[in-house]
Amino acid sequence: MKIHAYLTFDGQCEAAFTFYAECLNGSLELMHFGESPEAKNVPAQFHDRVIHVCLTSGDQVLMGADALPGTPYDGIKGCSISLQVENVPEAERLYEALSAQGSVQMVLQPTFWATRFAVFTDRFGVSWMINCTIDAQMG
């Protein structure tokens, strides 16, 4: 079994996942409502929204979509995407890229459990944690 996070947006899914693919060096498989077999059942103004996206980075997967038309949307709450990284330079790179234009709750810093740890919400409203427990470059 594998467990994958699935993020829901309100019209920003494609922009968010394009950004995540760039930051995480991943590739995207993406389909819009208007390209799906359900297109005839979706109002035309929602055809450019994402019905499903899959970001693959190495053997990791992050998926998402835009909320269904007419579905109440109250943002992404109650969870974080946690990135476990192998070295401080990668932790710093990801922190700088993903937190840009977002809000930082805890800056990237050493903690008693990690070489580096940070908590922030990106510009799309998704909460992230970066955790680097061992700096592979330090031995």
TrEMBL record:
Domain (Glyoxalase/fosfomycin resistance/dioxygenase) ranges: 3-130
Database matches in SUPFAM superfamilies: Glyoxalase/Bleomycin resistance protein/Dihydroxybiphenyl dioxygenase
Entry-linked InterPro entries: Glyas_Bleomycin-R_OHBP_Dase, Glyas_Fos-R_dOase_dom, PhnB-like
Domain of life where this protein originates: Bacteria
Full protein name: PhnB protein
Species whose genome carries this gene: Pseudomonas guineae
Biological classification of the source: Bacteria, Pseudomonadati, Pseudomonadota, Gammaproteobacteria, Pseudomonadales
